[in-house]
Specification:
- By secondary structure, this protein is mostly helical.
- Helices cover 62% and strands 0% of the residues.
- The radius of gyration is 17 Å and the shape is elongated.
Length: 48
């Protein structure tokens, strides 16, 4: 993953970093965890 240009970052303050950075950095992580869980469930027998 490449580092975004300096102009990409708004004037980030410690308080704003928890909101904007969490959306930018945690969302891909959450999607990765969900996708890995879905793949793990598909490998096993379906629950239905």
């Amino acid at each position: 993953m490449t580092t975004p240009p300096v102009g990409f970052w708004p004037k980030v303050r410690p308080s704003g970093l928890s909101t904007s950075a969490s959306i930018v950095f945690e969302a891909p992580a959450v999607l990765a965890v969900i996708s890995s869980l879905l793949l793990a469930m598909e490998e096993e027998e379906p629950f239905l």
